Task: inverse folding
C-alpha cells in the first residue's frame, strides 16, 4: 500500500532556514543540513528546500547547503525558489535535488514546464502554485504570494499538468500561517482536475489537520508544512502514529 | 570497487553519495576497462527506455554489461536500469532489452485500478516473494521509494519482492548474480542503504 507522505518544508535564505507567517516577518530557525538529518531520522518522507535568496552569493550558499544535505540525507529532496530556466534545473539537480519545483518562473514562461519535463522527465517537475481567493475566484499569485497574476488557479494547474508537471504543490495563501487546517475546498477542486500527485500546503496547525486532510480528500497524496515541524508543535513520529491509528497508510 | 555505469542518463549524484556513505570504493564511469575491473557493477537509469537502450548500444556498454553478467559478476540494475535487464519493453513502442532476465516491461496504465495515480510516486512496502541476499539486512514490509510508470511483467522466475499498488507490482528481482530494484534504494532512507550495503559488501551469489 502506498503511503501518504509527510513533507517538512525548509525555506532557506543565505544558508539558513527561515519561515514566514503569511510570507512576512521572517525569523531564523536553524541549519538546513542539521534539520534535514533530523527530519529524515524522524521519519519525514521527503524534504522540500525553498531558496528564497535573491543574491548570487545567497544562491551559491544554497547550492553548497544542498550538496551537503544530499551527502547525508537519503530521502527524496525537492528544490524550489528562483527556478526560471533549464540551467536552474541543471544547477540544483547536479547538487543532489531529485525534483525541482517551479512557481513564478513557470508563470512568466509556461514553456519551462514542457522543456524541463522533456529533458528530465515529468517525475522531476513539480508545479507549485500559491493560490488565494479574490472575489470568490481562486487566483494564482506570483513572487512569493505578493503579486496577483489574475490567472484562474484551477485552470492554470490543469494546464501545468498537461504541459508535463508530474506533481502539484498547492499552497493556499488564505490558510497559510493561520494554523486552522488545510484548505480542503481549494484542494478538492484541484484533485478533481489532475491525475498526478497533489501535495497540500498551508494551514496545518496540529495532527488532526493532517488526519482530516487525508480522510476528507483521498486524492491528496502528501501534506507539507514548515513551522509546526520546526518548532516541534507537531512531531513527525507522533503524526505518523496517529495517521496509522486512523487507518491512513503511513511509513513508520 | 563498485562501478556505477555512467552512460549519460540520469543524475548519479545521490547514488554516488549513498555508496560513499556506506564506505564503498565507488567509481562513476563510462570507461569499459574500469567497469570490467570492478568487483560489482550498478546499472542506474531514469527516463525513457528507448533512449537509455540506445545510449547503452552506442557506447558499446550493453555488450560489456552482458559479458560481465555472464561471467558471474554481481550486478544491480536500479529503476530504468532494472527494466533494461529484461527481454523487452513496451514503452512508446517495442524495444529489445539486454535479455539478462526473462520478462517484459509494460505500462502500469490499464493494469492498476483507475483511482491509482500514474506514475506511482512514493513509499510502498516490500513484500518478499523469495529469499535473496539483497534483503539480508531488511525485513518484509519495509518501505522503499518508488517513481515509475512502467513495471516488469512475466518475471515470475526472478521475482524476489513486489508491492501492492492495487495489483502486485514487481519491486525487486534476482537471477543468480543479476539483481534489480524498481525502487530507488539511494532514496529509500536506512532501508535503501541496507539494501545497497548487502549488494556492495557481502557475497552476492545465491
Result:
Amino acid at each position: 500500500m502506498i503511503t501518504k507522505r509527510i513533507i517538512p518544508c525548509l525555506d532557506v535564505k543565505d544558508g539558513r532556514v527561515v519561515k514566514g507567517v503569511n510570507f512576512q516577518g521572517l525569523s531564523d530557525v536553524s541549519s538546513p543540513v542539521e534539520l534535514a538529518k533530523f527530519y529524515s531520522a524522524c521519519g519525514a518522507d521527503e524534504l522540500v528546500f525553498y531558496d528564497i535568496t535573491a543574491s548570487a552569493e545567497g544562491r551559491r550558499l544554497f547550492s553548497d547547503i544542498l550538496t551537503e544535505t544530499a551527502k547525508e540525507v537519503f530521502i527524496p529532496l525537492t528544490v524550489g525558489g528562483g527556478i526560471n530556466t533549464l540551467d536552474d534545473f541543471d544547477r540544483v539537480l547536479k547538487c543532489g535535488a531529485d525534483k525541482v519545483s517551479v512557481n513564478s518562473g513557470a508563470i512568466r514562461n509556461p514553456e519551462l514546464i514542457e522543456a524541463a519535463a522533456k529533458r528530465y522527465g515529468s517525475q522531476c517537475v513539480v508545479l507549485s502554485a500559491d493560490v488565494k481567493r479574490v472575489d470568490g475566484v481562486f487566483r494564482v499569485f506570483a513572487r512569493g504570494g505578493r503579486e496577483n497574476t489574475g490567472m484562474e488557479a484551477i485552470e492554470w494547474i490543469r494546464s501545468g499538468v498537461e504541459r508535463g508537471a508530474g506533481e502539484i504543490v498547492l499552497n493556499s495563501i488564505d490558510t497559510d500561517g493561520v494554523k486552522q487546517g488545510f484548505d480542503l475546498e481549494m484542494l478538492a477542486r484541484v484533485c478533481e482536475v489532475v491525475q498526478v500527485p497533489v501535495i497540500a500546503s498551508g494551514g496545518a496547525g496540529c495532527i488532526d489537520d493532517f488526519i482530516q486532510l487525508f480522510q476528507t480528500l483521498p486524492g491528496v497524496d502528501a501534506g507539507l508544512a514548515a513551522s509546526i515541524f520546526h518548532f516541534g508543535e507537531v512531531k513527525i513520529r507522533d503524526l505518523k502514529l496517529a495517521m496509522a491509528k486512523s487507518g491512513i497508510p503511513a511509513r513508520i | 570497487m563498485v562501478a556505477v555505469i555512467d552512460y549519460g542518463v540520469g543524475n548519479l549524484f545521490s547514488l554516488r553519495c549513498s555508496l560513499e556513505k556506506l564506505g564503498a570504493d565507488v567509481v562513476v564511469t563510462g570507461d569499459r576497462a574500469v567497469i570490467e575491473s570492478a568487483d560489482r557493477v550498478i546499472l542506474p537509469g531514469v527516463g525513457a527506455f528507448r533512449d537509455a537502450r540506445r545510449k547503452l548500444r552506442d557506447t558499446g556498454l550493453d555488450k560489456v554489461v552482458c559479458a560481465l553478467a555472464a561471467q558471474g559478476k554481481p550486478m544491480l540494475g536500479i529503476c530504468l536500469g532494472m527494466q533494461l535487464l529484461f527481454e523487452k519493453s513496451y514503452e512508446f513502442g517495442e524495444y529489445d532489452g539486454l535479455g539478462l532476465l526473462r520478462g517484459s516491461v509494460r505500462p502500469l496504465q490499464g493494469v492498476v485500478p483507475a483511482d491509482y495515480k500514474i506514475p506511482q510516486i512514493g513509499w510502498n512496502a516490500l513484500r518478499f516473494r523469495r529469499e535473496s541476499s539483497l534483503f539480508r539486512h531488511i525485513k518484509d514490509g519495509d518501505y522503499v521509494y518508488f517513481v515509475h510508470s512502467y513495471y516488469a511483467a512475466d518475471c515470475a522466475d526472478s521475482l524476489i519482492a513486489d508491492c501492492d499498488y492495487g495489483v502486485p507490482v514487481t519491486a525487486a528481482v534476482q537471477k543468480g548474480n543479476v539483481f534489480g530494484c524498481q525502487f530507488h534504494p539511494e532514496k529509500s532512507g536506512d532501508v535503501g542503504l541496507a539494501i545497497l550495503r548487502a549488494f556492495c559488501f557481502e557475497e552476492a551469489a545465491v
About this structure: The interface with chain A takes residues 11, 13-14, 17-18, 20-21, 46-48, 115, 117-125, 143, 145-147, 163-165, 186-190, 192-193 of chain B (CB under 8 Å). Chain B has a mean pLDDT of 94. The first strand of chain B starts at residue 2 and ends at 5. The domain at 2-201 of chain B is CATH 3.40.50.880 (Rossmann fold).
